[in-house]
Amino acid sequence: MLRLKIRLGLAIALGLAIAGLWILPRGFEAGRTLAAQDDPVKLTDLALDRGFDATVAEREIRTALAGNDPELAQSFLELARERGVAIDPELVDKADADMQAWSSFGSTAWRFTRGFFAGNPDDVASLVGTAAGDLLVIGDVRDAAREGWHIARGEEANRLVLGLSLGGIAVTAGTFASFGLAAPARAGLSVIKAAGKSERIGARFLRLLRFEKPAALVEMAGDLGKVEAKAGGRAAFEAMQLAEEPKDLAKFGRLAVAKGGKTRAILKFLGRGAVAVTSSMIDLTLALMWAAANVLGFCASLKRTAERATLAVIRRRKLRRARLAAAVLAPAG
């Protein structure tokens, strides 16, 4: 019976070891993800480790070039270089050529002018133009007057844009008073306002904006300004679309400071997964618990089997000694 129990214990330990080949990696990954949930840089790196390779990079670069977005293509190239992912040289040359044409003086000047006068930016140059117009109060006065005119005529106005325009005038004054210290907030407000015009703000975040206090709004604008400064205007817009609460913008700001021009590629590839755990917390916790249970079960099974094997050895020795004693006493009897 003891031998049967030893064999059964070894079989259980072997089964747990085989199951561990599948369970433990998932458990370790879940543990690392849960530990990094408040660190957008680590969370991003873990997610990229799982799914970013040459196939993904080349596909995204080609898609960006086909969509006339060489800035995004360059962002993916930078990300590929950082992670040591080899890209087809011909594709690299194509992306570089398109980026050079897109960033030419004439193209940049046109986008800057469009942003300055129209206030509808969609890239770095047009956002700089929009921010310049707002910094000179021209843009905020224009937008406030337009929305105020809609109200005066009994038409529906974009009250978010109106409020941001009036607030932007105050922040602009603060920027000059603080010798530019409030410039990130000023740029961030320009992004939020432009996103509000074109309805590129996530629905949940839009509801939050309507009730935020001015000081909190300026803080959020400052975080968004960091994204714009480090990763560009489009990255800032995409961060606005992905954000669901104010702390998301703070995380996007930290990510942009760490990743710079690679941020757009990260946001395109990971979405909210760059700053938040998108997998079910229950699933991650269960994976971690199953991994812990597997290790404990394996150790317990080995311990119990070792104890039984030791007991079996002790019993055999006792039996051997008893037989020897009986053999010695037998002739005397």
Q: Topology of this structure?
A:
Blueprint: H1 2-35, H2 40-51, H3 54-66, H4 70-82, H5 89-102, H6 105-118, H7 124-135, H8 138-152, H9 159-177, H10 183-197, H11 203-209, H12 214-231, H13 233-242, H14 246-259, H15 263-270, H16 281-332
Helix pairs in contact: 1-16, 3-4, 4-5, 4-15, 6-7, 7-8, 7-10, 8-9, 9-10, 10-12, 10-13, 12-13, 12-14, 13-15
Explain what the structure shows.
This protein is mostly helical and 333 residues long. It has a domain at 45-276. Helices cover 81% and strands 0% of the residues. It is built from 16 helices and no strands. The protein has helices spanning 2-35, 40-51, 54-66, 70-82, 89-102, 105-118, 124-135, 138-152, 159-177, 183-197, 203-209, 214-231, 233-242, 246-259, 263-270, 281-332. α13 packs parallel to α15. Residues 173-181 have low confidence and may be disordered.
The helix/strand order is: HHHHHHHHHHHHHHHH
Number of strands: 0
Shape: elongated
Count, helices: 16
Biggest sheet overview:
none
Task: Tell me roughly what share of residues is in helical segments.
Answer: over 70%
| Coarse structural class | mainly alpha
Rg for CA atoms: 32 Å
pLDDT < 50 stretches: 173-181
Termini distance? 34 Å
Mean pLDDT: 76
Work out the strand percent: under 5%
Feature tags:
333 residues, mainly alpha, 81% helix, 0% strand
Summarize the structure.
It is built from 16 helices and no strands.
